[in-house]
Design brief:
Blueprint: H1 2-7, H2 9-25, H3 30-36, H4 40-55, E1 63-66, E2 69-72, H5 74-82
Antiparallel strand pairs: 1-2
């Protein structure tokens, strides 16, 4: 999946630029636009996160209850176990 993100980066970034332009045209708050906007560095960060999650030995489907919410903890569990 990370390789597909990297291979499709140009298309992903072009589509994201259209989304950002539409958001600005529709009057979305600039703080929301900032969270929506991707650039090469942000997309690479996502791909690295996918690589790290894929390399994690914990089961991705495992969740731990936290209050009324449930939180998937694969990445943080991996970080705790490898530390």
């Amino acid at each position: 999946m990370a390789a597909r993100l990297r291979d499709g980066a140009a298309d992903i970034l072009a589509a994201n630029a259209e989304d950002v332009a539409r958001g600005r045209r529709d009057g979305l708050a600039e703080s929301f636009i900032d969270r929506l906007a991707l650039d090469e560095a942000r997309l690479e960060s996502v791909a690295k996160g996918v690589d790290e999650t894929a390399a994690c030995p914990t089961r991705l489907a495992r969740c731990w209850p936290i209050g009324r919410a449930r939180m998937a903890c694969a990445s943080s569990a991996c970080a705790r176990r490898s530390a």
